[in-house]
Specification:
201 residues; seven-stranded mixed sheet; Rossmann fold; single chain; alpha/beta
């Protein structure tokens, strides 16, 4: 049996932190896993910036409320779910993603969560498990699934290389340069063609 796993932001949804950066004018919040491969370094920087600028969870939720799936994302995700089971593996947080899941017809999402104090300050982030994307693929393979994985960033490399088959979707040039052996798709049409081929091969 085959199963698909995929990243969320940059694949089906716009990058949440980039949109928070645009709304607040804090340029450093535009940095994502496309720019910094060490997730702990990235999140520590983000939390520091939130504290410095007195940004609370509601400020981020207000930005999230304005976001919609990427053009063509919902239709593509619906098509995928007609072909196979898919699990979204994301390094986002339940508190961010929950309102957006309704806009994607509630796919299965495995992600992390935040520690938020009574004043609404985000004081910490809680990783469900280290290298959760790669470990999820390992677990699915242990259940005798043939896993097909795709994503766009450095934090997707583990799951893509651990999967039986994997590829990129709209990665930045830096990721392509660093991992030239991984196939690349750039449009939802190409994505569907790749998935269709892998599911039937």
């Amino acid at each position: 049996m085959k199963i698909l796993v995929a990243d969320l932001e940059g694949v089906f949804l716009p990058e949440i932190w980039i949109n928070v950066a645009k709304k607040t004018g804090i340029e450093e919040l535009k940095l994502t896993t496309r720019d910094i491969s060490d997730y702990d370094v990235l999140m520590t920087k983000r939390l520091s910036l939130l504290k410095e600028n007195n940004l609370k969870i509601q400020d981020i939720r207000d930005v999230i409320a304005t976001l919609d799936p990427l053009d063509g994302a919902l239709e593509t995700l619906n098509w995928i779910r007609e072909q196979s089971q898919i699990i979204i593996l994301s390094d986002t947080f339940e508190e961010f993603a929950k309102p957006l899941m309704a806009k994607l017809n509630f796919p299965t999402l495995l992600c992390h969560n935040l520690t938020i104090d009574k004043q609404g300050n985000i004081t910490d982030y809680n990783i469900r498990i280290d290298h959760q994307k790669k470990e999820a693929v390992k677990a699915l393979k242990g259940l005798n699934y043939h896993v097909i994985a795709f994503g766009d960033s450095y934090n997707d490399i583990g799951m893509i290389t651990e999967a039986d088959q994997g590829f990129f979707f709209r990665p930045p040039d830096s990721v392509i340069t660093d991992f030239p052996e991984i196939p690349v798709t750039r449009t939802y049409s190409e994505l569907k063609t790749m998935i269709g081929t892998l599911l039937t091969s």
